[in-house]
């Protein structure tokens, strides 16, 4: 099946489904075989894709970037953005740096749980926006 065209009625639904899938992966939790940095990667992806879902909901161009600040800036003309979402740019570090072995700072369970909580909030906010509910219920 071909991907949804940007701005199509189902495009934002697809973005939300993928964001929810990333969130489910982030919720797996740490174990001896699962690295917290990979869970943080999926938390970042859930945030990024949720924000892009909101852009698609408003038929706005969806930027091809992993930079959360850039996506938030693209959202500003379309919707009031809670302060908590404007301050999530630190998750951008998990987008690329943690996907490959490199010289990043160690990520512990506290970092992971923080990224997961933020991802859960953003996914809930994006779903509320895309369903027309009050924009600040999740925060």
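^ Assign residues to that structure.
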């Amino acid at each position: 099946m071909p991907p949804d065209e940007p701005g199509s009625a189902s495009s934002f639904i697809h973005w939300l489904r993928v964001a929810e899938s990333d969130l489910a992966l982030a919720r797996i939790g740490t174990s001896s075989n699962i690295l917290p940095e990979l869970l943080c990667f999926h938390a970042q992806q859930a945030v990024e894709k949720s924000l892009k879902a909101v852009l698609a909901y408003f038929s706005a161009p969806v930027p091809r970037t992993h930079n959360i600040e850039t996506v938030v800036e693209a959202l500003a003309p379309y919707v009031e953005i809670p302060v908590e979402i404007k301050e999530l740019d630190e998750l951008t570090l998990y987008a690329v740096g943690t996907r490959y072995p490199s010289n990043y700072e160690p990520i512990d369970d506290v970092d992971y749980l923080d990224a997961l909580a933020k991802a859960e909030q953003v996914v809930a906010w994006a779903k509320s926006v895309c369903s027309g509910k009050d924009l600040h219920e999740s925060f």
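The helical segments are 11-26, 36-57, 68-75, 83-86, 93-96, 109-130.
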